[in-house]
TrEMBL record, chain A:
Its cofactor is thiamine diphosphate. InterPro entries: THDP-binding, Transketo_C/PFOR_II, Transketolase-like_Pyr-bd, Transketolase_C. It comes from the Bacteria. Keywords: Oxidoreductase, Pyruvate, Thiamine pyrophosphate. The lineage of its organism: Bacteria, Bacillati, Actinomycetota, Actinomycetes, Streptosporangiales. This is Pyruvate dehydrogenase E1 component beta subunit. One of its GO terms (molecular function) is oxidoreductase activity.
UniProtKB/TrEMBL annotation, chain B:
It holds the Pfam family E1_dh. One of its GO terms (biological process) is pyruvate decarboxylation to acetyl-CoA. This is Pyruvate dehydrogenase E1 component alpha subunit. It comes from Nonomuraea wenchangensis. Keywords: Oxidoreductase, Pyruvate, Thiamine pyrophosphate. It comes from the Bacteria. Its cofactor is thiamine diphosphate. Residues 25-276 form the Dehydrogenase E1 component domain.
Amino acid sequence: MREPVRAERVSEHLNRALHDVLAADPTVHVLGEDIADPYGGAFKITKGLSSRFGDRVRSTPISEAAIVGTGAGLALGGDKAIVEIMFADFAALAFDQLMNFASKSTTMYGRPVPMPLVVRCPSGGRRGYGPTHSQSPQKHFLGVPGLSVLELTPFHDARALLEDAFAAGRPALLFEDKVLYTRRMFRDGVVDELFRYELVNGLARVAVEGVDGHDCTIIAPGGMAHRALEAMRELLLEHDVLCELLVPARLYPFDLGGVLPRGRQVCVAEDGAAGATWGAEVATRLYPVLWGRLARPITLVSAADSVIPAAPHLEREVLVHADTIRLAVLEALA
Amino acid sequence: MTGVIVEDVEHGRPSPLALGDLDRLLLIRHFENALLRLFGEGLLSGTTHTCLGQEHVPVALNPLLREDDFTFSHHRGHGHFLARYGEEAGALLAEIMGRRGALCDGVGGSQHIYHRTFMSTGVQGESLPVAVGMALRLRRAGHGALACAYLGDGTWGEGSVYEALNLAALWGAPLLVVVENNGIAQSTPTERGMAGTIEGRVAAFGIPYLRIDSIDLAAVRAALTGPVAAVRKDAFPLVVEFVTRRLGPHSKGDDTRTPDELRRARAGDWYERYAAAFPRRFAEADATWRRYVDDLVAEVSARPPAQWTVR
């Protein structure tokens, strides 16, 4: 018997999704710094696109505000645009276009104005890139009327994610964890020999099959999924603590889509810095639903209230690891 | 193309106005005056920015633009809108007053209008990158349409203007950038906010540039007809700087200029010059449009509040 072909890497999956989206829809454009061949983007996610799709795929000058604005202009005119920001940190340079134009345009003219625009943002640390190239700045884009915040996951089909974002008619940021790029997609409902996953109403739910009585539900964005899984495995094998994991592809507006956490404890884990976090927003949404069922407050795990140092040993002190989650869950259940 | 300059202010008699031009000029003038009056009477909320003294710019450009051209305007945009859609003056006033029949259900107000192929936004410099995207889209469509973006002199302090000009030049965007340089950004004279000149800045991008210092509609059109056609045909950005005068306050009651400065601003006003050159016709039209706007104000004021119907 032949070994099954291994699942594709997340970076390959996303690259293929972009190829498919551009091939299926001649109105889609991709703009970004250094995205054209032969370079194919700083993380190679756009490889092959410019060779195949000509001037619908453009390498741009270093002008984040203008390329996001140009994408919005293409969208306003009836096309669709995907803009790559080389490092999510630099999305700050395009904040006005996102907050005051693209998102507001969908409603501020008194009627819905479609704005099919996706701004892709490679994010996250653990690469030693230092304070301005390692952030997970998702939280800064939460709560903007008309703006969706998405995150790539190893469970969700990236093409569907992009096409759904376009169909929603409102601009979206798509955060893509840089380390996740190197991991493989999960498929066929299998995570590993312990865990299985299913997609329910846009949410990936990972659990041990056929078992009830979850001690804890971990909720995490896609970039945190592997660390959460590692924590779950150790919690189960070393501590006999049973966890499930919920991974939404859309971080904001946050909606569990009717999927209720089954654990008696809930832990939200994310890569952003402490303070005014995504987890706080998730907890605010969950409390009314889970009130009376929770034995204790929802546990929030995030990076430290700190810049992200460049030196690997210092960076490690600041960011979230599988162990951070494991210890937080144990402490909450203690 | 750079260097073509039309200059005629305070010299001689302007060319006779084409049919409808005087009507448009006077509609805008009386519309803007009415807004300041309404503010004075406490009947308008929020803020507004009138284009008094700059009405001739969009009126001159109007016949050079096509219905499928997309216009981007800004905070001082009533004239840009009315030059193009004068018949919608009531809907614009309703938008500004938050009354039924408003262009955008009263959500956008004075600075955020979207109607057909006209859009205004309230943040300086924000629309120019968007205009580049729209221009690229229009270029791909292949019908010769262009994007037209109005900017003030103060907007040249925004970095996104330069990012957008760079993209427009690199990518051959059919983009007409119309600069209304009225010499003052809110309260700050242009020379205290701008090092160098707009011409020099545009030249740095290798973008064609024209300066127009004229209120003579026929002369302005004669100077711009060829260049605007070239923008459509050959797909490139063109910057046209109009030397204008802001007669009114930045918004309302916030003019810190001296009487002498205001006198100098008024000296170039098209209103006085056309009134002097064509007295009988002008007086008649002036009375007609004054009355028209008064009636419009009465009619719109009597409407019920706007309802945000589709969110």
